[in-house]
Each structure stands twice: as C-alpha cells, then as structure tokens.
Amino acid sequence: MVNLKKVLRNFVGKSSLPQRLRYYNSLSDNRLLEASKGYDDLDASHGKRLMEVLKYIVSGEKISSENQQVNDLEKVVSKIKKRPEVTKKYMQQWDRERHLVMDAKKEDAIEHIRFCRKLGASDTEIKENLETNFKLSPSTINELFAQVDSEELETNTK
Fold it and tell me: How remote is the C-alpha of 3 from its chain's centroid?
C-alpha cells in the first residue's frame, strides 16, 4: 500500500504534473514488482486509475468512488485540512502569493504607463487600458500614476 502521507509530503508546493505522473507510475511499478508481478500483468484500468488519482491531486475533483487510492488520499487530505496549523499556514501562503501577484501586476502596470507615455498616449487612454487589461481599480491606477509622476519629476530635477 502506498504511504499517502509520504506522497503528500513529496508534492507539497510542487505543481509539475509530469513529475507527479512519473512518480505515481513508479509507485505503481514498484507495487507490481514487489508483488512479483510483471508489467504484462497490468490491467486495462491501470492508466485510468492513475489519471483519477492525478486529477484528484491537481483539482480536488473525485471522478469515481471506486478508486481506493483516491479514497485513501481524500481521507488523508481531509484529516490534514482539519488541523488548525495547516489552515493557518495555507492562508499565510495564499496571502503571500496574492501579494506577489499584485506586486508583479503593479510593476507591469508602471512599465506600461511609462511605455504608453513614450508613445504619446494620453493618461485617460492609459487609465482605461489599465482598468480593462490589468483589472486594476481606479484608486490603484491613480496611485501608480502618482508614483510614475513622482519618479519622472525626480528624474527631471536632477
């Protein structure tokens, strides 16, 4: 039987599906070889079961209730999710990632403002573009314009 806690520990924070596929294929192969079975003994549902496990890991979607590996994995995940320290760490990580995404988006928006100004676009056009394409709020856009304006003013006074 696969040690699901060990499997979860190996994949926390990793999002590479090909690595997971190789890992689960090797787990399945090891189980067969430990049971003294050969590769020829694989049944047709081997790939289907593996894909159900991977789909559950990636999306949390449970396709069928007959897959014991998915059921075992779901039990472990549910048990872990109930622990308050896990919830706290998850929320902290989620918040960190949200801030990183927003910071990157703001940096891109600042570069966009500078570039559009060099091309001669009006501030109104740039603001509309930022609101539409970057999905930024008008207050955030105004803050970014103020930042760019202060940087330009500082550069021009030197």
Answer: 24
